Amino acid sequence: MNTIAGQNLGRFGIYAFGFEHRSAAGIRSDIEELEELGWPSLWFPEVGGREAFTLVSLLLAATRRMRIVNGIARIGQRTATATQGGALLLADAYPGRHTLGLGIGDGLPGVPPLAAMNGYLDELDALAAGASQPRIPRVLAAYGPRMLELARDRAAGAHTYKVNVDHTARAREILGPNAFLGVEHAALFESDPATARAIAREHLHIYLTTPFNVAKYRRLGYSEDDIAGGGSDRLVDDLVYWGEPGAVAEKLRAHIDAGADHLAVQVIGVEPGRSAMPQWRLLTEALLPQNITA
């Protein structure tokens, strides 16, 4: 099941972290080509610079068919009223093409993450109650068992980020057979081990030095030695798949085999502000050969 509320995201999609640093014209050019190449869906994060709903609108307006997913919109960045209003307008303007991904991000001061998300969902549900409005499909960023259970019970499913295949299998067990599971994974088209791991460690630095991510990796069985010093080769290789495109594609499919409905691929090793289209074209050839035209 690679659908959310009837929206077919495809087995594989693009995760575009780099849109944070691209011009509007560059974003339009990239997303238009990705649609032409046959990609069914695109995810992007909210990391503090580009406002999530504004960027969703730009991406939807530049395309005709692609599904666009917030991965994620931070609940601390806007009230539930603003989120509901924005999502309703997008559902009306672009029926069946937007999925609202919600996550804690920086959280709400003094409120535990699970309570913060539960309260936010309560507000969203109260705003939608009794109204004749389009359904807003939503997924939750979730890692630990209780947040995954919340995603199962109060959303269409879960979105995970920077996890290994074992986590995907565990998440599927908690979500059960019917909830959606979308997984992000990083890919790097570099075959030299030393070069690839150096690029991967630079990319992973923030995730290996923030407490909630460190706790996530400890729960997955990585030791302090694995996490310290930029990450062990084992941890780095589990979180960033590197090598020739065909070999990377085979590794990415392991998440699908482990229970993911959809995998959003984040290519790394691209200079901020530069287009990732050269890497996305290689990814297209490796994962979507049926969509390549002469």
Automatic annotation (TrEMBL):
Domain Luciferase-like: 31-107
Pfam families, sorted: Bac_luciferase
Keywords from the UniProt entry: Oxidoreductase
Claim: Oxidoreductase is one of the keywords in the record: yes
Gene3D superfamilies registered for this protein in UniProt: Luciferase-like domain
InterPro entries in the record: F420-G6PD/mer, Lucif-like_OxRdatse_MSMEG_4141, Luciferase-like_dom, Luciferase-like_sf
Protein name: TIGR03620 family F420-dependent LLM class oxidoreductase
Organism of this sequence: Nocardia albiluteola
